[in-house]
Amino acid sequence: MPEMNRRKFLIAGAGVGAAGLLSGVAAVSLPDLLDAGRQRPMPEKSGILVIVTLYGGNDGINTVIPYADNAYHDARPDLAYAPGEVLPLDGQLGLNPGLTGMAELWRRKRLAIVRGVGYPNPDRSHFRSMDIWQTASPNDAVPTGWIGRWLDASGDDPLRAINVGAVLPLMAVGEKHVASALSETIPRIPIDIADTLSAMADDDPRDTPAMRAVRRTYRATRVTEPEFGRVIKGVDPATAGRSADVESLSAQLDVVARCVKAAVPTRVYMVSLGGFDTHADERGTQEELLRTLDDALTPFLAQMRTNMYGRNLVVMAYSEFGRRVAANSSQGTDHGAAGPVFLMGAPVKGGFYGDEPSLTDLVDGDLKTTTDFRDVYHELLSKTLKTDPVPSVGLGRRDIGFL
């Protein structure tokens, strides 16, 4: 390939960035020639973080239900759950009936519920609010995510953070490094393209820093693709990635479980479940989505309890915002502000954290934030990932106490 074409190709790859290379097969700006999954297994006591993003704005009020509060029933006369329908947590709050497995975690003191989580001056746009949660920057739009900044500060291993799925979330994008994107349904790289990538990965002293980053991406792809083919469903790397479905949350967490049990040295996994934008006919839709979440997490966490690596694993589940207190005219709810964050796993100290927001002392119909989401991240970074949280969440944050 002529040199000018090579340079144009590298520059184009640098522009693609976190959106993905080769239509999203992988997007990693990471060091070369690393084969950590086979040659350097995860140290036994390393903390592992699994981030579950609930896209669409989950209604926290009908998830952690204030069933004993008359204001709840007054605001949602047809949408509210009766006291006998909820899974009680105490005399005031109960879980949605779709969350039976999480209710059992609560009884075993392995479920922490952080209440009223949000940020100052909330934004009701899905896109802007999710950007804020994923970048941990409520005031200024920034191009890097909180996990991406951890990647920048924590080394060069291309397996440190994995998004299960081909579309890399903003939280996983750093200035120097990004997470790997993994999907079983991505077709194998054709041999002619693989040969081209191999040629493109060769060092060239005239490359710019961005072009060198793309070269590292090509080399890292050659490492991560066969490595994860080894552990996904136990299939051979030559046939991995051709048929299995990773669209469901259960399938995504099955991939994570297999990787954890195979000692892949990944510290952060990212998975997701969508559909929570419940403007109409919310009750049945949300309950089914929460049951899907519960049905995926319950067996996953059961597997992790009996595994020497899984015993150090923590799951965080969050959504970009909660919903408004009052139901709308379509038996649904509209975009709101604060909501609950769930933490699960053996290292978690179960219970409530953060103050319960008032259903009557509102800001423009929305719950007031009582816990800053960056404090949740601060504790996960300091306690689970054993790292300095400041590069990811800035100064002035603190641990909450759930670990």
How would you state the average pLDDT, rounded? 82
Order of helical and strand elements: HHEEHEEHEHHEEHHHEHEEEEHH
| Uncertain ranges | 1-36, 184-190, 233-246
Question: Number of folding domains?
Answer: 1
User: How many E strands?
Assistant: 12
Structure annotation, total helices: 12
Main beta-sheet annotation: 9 strands, mixed
- Structural class, from helix and strand content? alpha/beta
Beta-strand residue percentage = 5-15%
CATH architecture name: 3-Layer(aba) Sandwich
CATH T-level topology: Alkaline Phosphatase, subunit A
Percent of residues in helices: 25-40%
Cα shape: globular
N→C terminal distance: 54 Å
Please provide a written account of the structure.
The chain is of the alpha/beta class. It has one domain: Alkaline Phosphatase, subunit A. 34% of the residues lie in helices and 13% in strands. It contains 12 helices and 12 strands. It has helices at 3-16, 36-39, 70-75, 100-107, 126-135, 146-154, 191-200, 209-231, 249-261, 282-305, 373-384, 390-393; strands at 48-54, 64-65, 87-88, 94-95, 111-118, 161-164, 180-182, 268-273, 313-319, 339-344, 351-353, 371-372. The strands form 2 sheets. Strands 1, 5, 6, 7, 8, 9, 10, 11 and 12 form a 9-stranded mixed β-sheet that branches. It has a 3-stranded antiparallel β-sheet with strand order 2-4-3. Strand 3 (87-88) and strand 4 form a beta hairpin. Helix 1 (3-16) crosses helix 8 (209-231), helix 7 (191-200) packs across helix 8 and helix 9 runs parallel beside helix 10. The longest helix has 24 residues, at 282-305. Residues 1-36, 184-190 and 233-246 have low confidence and may be disordered. InterPro entries: DUF1501 (IPR010869), TAT_signal (IPR006311). Pfam families: DUF1501 (PF07394). It comes from Mycolicibacterium arabiense. This is DUF1501 domain-containing protein.
